[in-house]
Amino acid sequence: MPVRGDTLYAAILRSPHPHAEILSIDASKALARPGVAAVLTGPEVKAMTEPFIVGVKAPIDDWALAVDRVRYVGEPVAVIVAGDRYQAEDALDAIEVEYRPLPIELDPRTAARPDATLLHPACKSNIVHDRTFRYGDPESAFANAPHRIKLEVEYPRVLCAPMEGYIVVADHNAAEDSFDVIANFQGPFSVLTVVPRALRVAGNKFRLRTPPNSGGSFGSKLAIFPYMVLICIAAKKTGRPVKWVEDRLEHLAASGSGPHRITNIEAAVAKDGEILALNCDHLEEYGALLRAPMPGPLYRMHGVTTGTYGIRHLAIRNRIVLTNKAPVSLVRGFGGPQIYFALERLVQRIAVELKLEPLAVMRRNLIPANAFPYRTAAGALLDSGDFQNAIATAIDEGGLGELQHRREEARKAGRLYGIGFACASEPGVSNMGYLSTLLPLEARRKAGPKDGAIGTATVAVDGNGQVTVASDSTPQGQGHRTVLAQIVADELGLTPNDIAVNVELDTSKDAWSIAAGNYASRFAASTANAAYLAAGRIRKKLAAIAALSLGVSSESLTFKGGKICSLTDPTKTLPLYRVAGMAHWSPGSLPDDITPGLRETVQWNPRELTPPTENDEINTSLTYGFIFDFCGVEIDRITGEVRIDKYVTMHDGGRLLNPALVESQVHGALGQAFGATLYENFAYGADGNLLTSTFADYLLPTAMEIPPTQLLYQETPSPFTPLGTKGVGEGNSMTTPACIGNAVADALGIRDVPLPITPVRIAALLHGEELPPPAKFTSAPSSTTAATVERRHDSLMQRLFSKREQL
Amino acid sequence: MKPAQFDYLRAGSIEEVVSHLETYGDRARIMAGGQTLMPMLNFRLVEPELIIDITGIAPLAHIRMSGPWVEIGAAVTQSSLLDWSDLSREVPLVAAALPWVGHFQTRNRGTVCGSIAHADPSSELPLVLAVLGGAIDLASKRGTRTLKVSEFQLGMLTTARAPDELITSVRFPRAKKGEGYVFREVARRHGDFAIVSLAGMAVAGQVVLGVGGVAGSPTVRAFGTLKDAALDDALNAFAWEMGGHDDVHATARYRRDLVRMLGKQVIEEARACLS
Amino acid sequence: MPILKAGERHTVTLTLNGRPATGYAESRTLLSDFIRHELGATGTHVGCEHGVCGACTVRVDGKAVRSCLTLAVQAAGCQVETVEGLAPRGTLSILQEAFKRHHAVQCGYCTPGILMSLTHYLETNPEATEMQLREVIGGHLCRCTGYTQIVAAAVDVATRLREAARKP
Ligand code: FES
Ligand code: FES
Questions:
Q1: How far away, in angstroms, is C66 Cα from ligand 2 center?
Q2: Is B242 left (phi over 0), alpha (psi -120 to 50) or beta?
Q3: Cα–Cα distance list, A573 to A293, A389, A467, A548, A566 (Å)
Q4: Which residue of A159, A254, A348, A511 has the lowest C-beta tally within 10 Å?
Q5: Are strands A147-155 and A127-135 parallel, antiparallel or unpaired?
């Protein structure tokens, strides 16, 4: 985005310590460096802003910049504003910070103990949320069940790491005390309301504009909001626009990964594999702060804790624990990977323990096709589906038989080959009230109901009949413009090329709601429907005007090839642009019941998204797609590498508006999921330093790591959306780790599968006891071992950040 | 992530380089392809006073046969060596290892000598040089000298190059008839630094195995004609002596396991090449 | 050559997409920053500044290289080509067309770099196999597409080039 000529550039000093008191900060030397316009530190931010509000009832101390204390490596400690980024970084070295290190808590289990070091002493515990839920009668079901089968599973932190980082350009208008920001923020816009509050201005004095193009997000670009506050303050202080571009080190250290969840999951099971009741105990680690909209991952899937299965008795415990790690934020799948890795691994385990086929256990428990709309135990209203048929099609067209044959051959030859399955109910469009489920009923009553999810779109036709569409979906490459053009063109009898779509959002003049943004797979099932409805209103209006001038009834008109024509009398036809011209040029001649102009904004809200009930039932999402995956994997006995032989994924995403774009989303989610399952390890050392601080250590998959995949579709329209669409695009983040995990469990005959499934972990299982050193051997030449550990992997972050501290 | 300030010299001759090295010593850094140095500059892990760019020095741009050696100048990129039509005949082990060095894009700029000079224990070319018994040519104001690889590679990221010296070329012994070569590598992703890399060379049934990524520098051991259990024992001893280290990608134990198991495969394959 | 002093601005002239272009750079200025901010060609993207992601890939004297691992002063006098030069006069290069056909672009952040790599590779290896193309693409990170459609687009172009070469 072009910026004003007098724009200054910011760089951020970050904490080298996972936990420390800030005893003093001296920026005087930095201020004297060439080009430096200002330095921002904690005390100033404390004086100029408000802390961020927190989603749970706990006195968590959260500012845009560390105040008095740092709680994770990479936490912003100071901001330098200078003539360019090079100068700003030069001056970082000159800020003198004195820290007093404090004990740290990294492991969720130990951080949860009563004697743990407290991250926020006012909270009295690192567990800042603990709630239990009960649906049906799980206790009796467990007491009477012939089998109880359980697993403890962990889903580690994963980072979506879009290729473009955060970008904020902020300007302050001193006369009005208002802020103007351009940022690649992705929503949900409900979170945006915390920014003006932190800046101590009214919401209408804070204008955000999002750019037309953005380099990916996958949830990530929600967590840009604290930086908006920082850069706004920097602009206010310097009286000039300030631009900040997050670099890759900053992104890896501090942008916000997904949470780390430990789930103890147990099923009460009948002899034939029927799951009679389910008990899920989640302990979720969110890092040092709980930033809006956290703890979303713990509640987004609440309604579908039972997945695709008709399990009527359910117990849930949700706990949140804070640690000295970077705060957690939005990621693709958002809560889904954690739920399904536990549930689908358990289904595999049930099959093993009861000596049944995994597919048989799955099928035994699926919600029947004639049961929709189906209310789950925890309150989700599953809109539609035919899971049985989708599975049958996938097995057939995806060639399960061939994989089974390969497994047989491989095993005969002594090779390690396994097959895994997973299925999931994929949520689309989040109920804006789902997070209120975390509040006890009393608190909910006091706060007032929260529900719904507004989708917003505007269709405008100018005096020459040219059509423009705007939307609230702030895309980052998902092809929303293509789809919107297609929907509106279809309604108005035009071609997509005739439609101009603008997806930039300006909060000061465009239509939006707190539900706006590009998250929770909301586009196809929300925004797209609003556009469809808006186009329908325009069509109705054009038809009414045309009907008047043609002297026919508007019902008898059709829109085709840029014309509005009578279905019955081919001579009665008008070009669309003529009719549009009438609305603009001669509004006086329109009858009273037709409003002048041709611009319709629709804010559509589905009725199914109701607030949590008294019994804590919550319909967490509007639409629920179905996914069924299977894969074959082969494991190298020596290296422990997992090679995916073939991966098949079946999606029922409701009506598909544009199958090619859906396919792209599925491939994209698969790519990220292969990474999360097999390569990406968001690792902290025992000293609290981030070990995976560069792209050489946080391993995203490349084209070389992508296995052969087969994509299959079924279309069961949603009855709850005007277009019959559902949310798509996150599903494989949810199913793939479980599917591969199950295949690995099958190949090795193991119970627990750790994520990520790295060669070294597999090899540790395969290789047994290590051969002892030969008798005459004393010890490894110590110079090599000790020195080598010092190498690249002793955390670049620490070396970088502490180098600055020493100066 | 921007480099700190430095002076920059695009050197036109070896003489110019060595006279600046004499003045600056280790306050100067030689930049050839920059594929390792540039990230370190961007991270501000190194902040030299002077960068001496040697890519424009014509006498450093040669690949030539010189007696028993293939001599590769300090400005020769990995991709131009890979494109050299005689490569697989003259130094088949280099031909096998080079595609594992970084990526197409980094090989287009990264140099062969730069990789040798950096002496990363898990990079491929230092391993190959060690197994083949190559040599390194150095120049300084004081004169020139040639070091055997065993004298040159001192440890992790450490070489015998003096601060005032420039590596002018590296020499790989030319392959002879009756030699077998095998290169294997285990990395997390293709193009990553090796967790373990192995290079085997067999001559008349005698096998030499070199291992990278485990000890502080590539380690070479002769396994003669050892077979079966005796070979297993020798490999086990070799693995323990190198020790290995834990890092975010693998453990020392894993590295030793690969030496034991893949080492045997590589030795057997190298022998098989002969028949 | 004289030493270019730290902290001073030096004139750098190079050929950008066939035309001479001049701007100021410090000795430490990265070629990626120079191209984007000084010459205003923002089609080249920056994703890591440590040589791993490939988003910044441009061609220098014909070769696909990381512009974040190159100094602007090193490119003085060189032929630099960026994505803006791939399809002059508003047409799409055959590679760009294939990317479009195969839906190989989502956010487009990684795309310019991949296009520059593939253009170089296919020019010198028109007979490229799928595995070879995969390896070249393997020098880039893309977070949107999962690569499948990028590989398909590259293979499609290689096939067309091969067929075109066979035609007399
Ligand atoms: S920005 Fe240059 S390789 Fe990533
Ligand atoms: S298309 Fe977005 S990173 Fe590749």
A1: 17
A2: alpha
A3: 52, 46, 20, 12, 6
A4: A511
A5: unpaired
Mutate which of A667, A679, A680 to test chain C, going by most C C-beta atoms within 10 A?
Answer: A667
CA of A230 to the centre of ligand 2 (A): 28
Other beta carbons within 10 Å of B237: 18
Give the closest-approach CA distance of A674 to chain C in angstroms.
9
**Residue range B58-173, CATH number:** 3.30.465.10
Q: Identify all chain A residues contacting B265, using CB atoms and an 8 Å cutoff.
A: 638
C15 and C74 belong to one structural domain: yes
Q: What is the pLDDT of residues B158-189, one digit of tens each?
A: 999 999 999 999 999 999 999 999 999 999 99
What CATH architecture does domain B7-53 belong to? Answer: 2-Layer Sandwich (3.30)
CB contact (8 A) between residue B240 and residue A702:
no
Any chains having at least 3 CB pairs less than 8 A from chain C are: A, B
CB-closest option in A89, A681, A788 to B245: A788
ipTM of the shown complex: 0.97
> Domain A8-102+160-254 classified CATH 3.40.50.410?
no
| Whole-number pLDDT of residue A797 | 56
> Whose structure tokens read 């070329």?
B169
What does pTM read for this prediction?
0.97
Mean pLDDT, all residues of chain C: 95
Residue of A nearest to C45 (CA): A164
Q: Kindly give, in sequence order, each residue whose CB lies less than 8 Å from that of residue A484, ignoring residues fewer than 6 positions away.
A: A457, A469, A471, A499, A501, A503, A527, A528, A531
Residue C4 forms part of a structural domain: no
pLDDT for the residue A782: 43
Report CB contact under 8 Å: C7, B5.
yes
pLDDT in the model for residue C135: 97
What's residue A331's pLDDT? 95
How far apart, in whole angstroms, are the C-alpha atoms of residue B112 and residue B83? 13
* Ligand 2 atom having least distance to the Cα of C104: 1
Question: What DSSP string describes A528-566?
Answer: HHHHHHHHHHHHHHHHHHHHHHHTS-GGGEEEETTEEEE
Structure tokens at A394: 């996938």
Q: Do B7-53 and B58-173 share a fold?
A: no
C1 is a domain residue: no
Residue of B nearest to C61 (CA): B108
Contact A714, A726 (CB under 8 A): no
Is 90 exceeded by the pLDDT of residue B130?
Answer: yes
What's the fold here for domain A455-603? Aldehyde Oxidoreductase; domain 4 (3.30.365)
Distance from CA of B32 to the nearest CA of A (A): 21
The response to whether residue C141 sits with its C-beta less than 6 Å from ligand 1 reads: no
| Residues of chain A scoring pLDDT < 50 | 782-794, 803-807
Q: What percent of chain B has pLDDT over 90?
A: 96
Looking at the DSSP bridge assignments, the partners of residue A738 are none
∠ CA A261-A262-A266, rounded to 5°: 130
Among the bound ligands, name the one nearest to the CA of residue C50: 1
Interface residue B154 vs chain A (CB under 8 A): no
Residue C30, ligand 1, Cβ within 6 A: no
Query: In chain A, which segments carry CATH 3.90.1170.50?
Result: 8-102+160-254
- Can you give the length of chain A in residues? 807
pLDDT of residue A793: 39
In whole angstroms, give the CA distance from residue A804 to residue A605.
51
The minimum CA-CA distance between C132 and chain B, rounded to whole Å, is 10
Domain that holds residue C72: 9-86
When pLDDT is cut at 50, 70 and 90, the band that residue C92 belongs to is confident
Q: Given this model, what pLDDT does residue A72 score?
A: 98
Q: Is the pLDDT of residue B99 over 90?
A: yes
- How far apart, in whole angstroms, are the C-alpha atoms of residue A612 and residue A441? 9
Q: How confident is the model at residue B222 (pLDDT cuts 50, 70, 90)?
A: very high
